[in-house]
Design brief:
The chain contains two helices and four strands, in the order βββαβα. It has about 90 residues and is α+β, with helices and mostly antiparallel strands. The longest helix is centred in the middle third of the chain and has 16 residues.
């Protein structure tokens, strides 16, 4: 519930990204709860970095689900880099 007592839907999304030593990387997300049908997304890139793939995993989830009205979107990541970008406002 929100501060007005209104029921808010919640979607939980887990993101990840990685990169091999040759610069080939991938990122993606999986919706763990909140949708009737499972949802997964994966994309790959060449000439990239691990940090870039971690951030792109979160951004892909935000682009897909970030504008749903009356829904709380919880994003989970194992990337300290992504968490610090958000917490310390590195991207602002």
């Amino acid at each position: 519930m929100d501060e007005r007592g209104k029921i808010v839907n919640r979607i939980e999304i887990y993101t990840d990204g990685s990169c091999k030593g040759d610069g080939t990387g991938a990122y993606g997300f999986v919706v763990a709860s909140g949708l009737q049908n499972p949802c997964e997304f994966v994309e790959s890139e060449k000439n990239t970095t691990n940090q870039r793939m971690e951030i792109k995993g979160v951004l892909a989830a935000c682009e897909k689900f970030g504008k749903i009205i009356d829904t709380e979107v919880m994003i989970y990541t194992d990337s300290a880099y992504v968490c610090n970008c958000h917490k310390d406002l590195w991207l602002s």
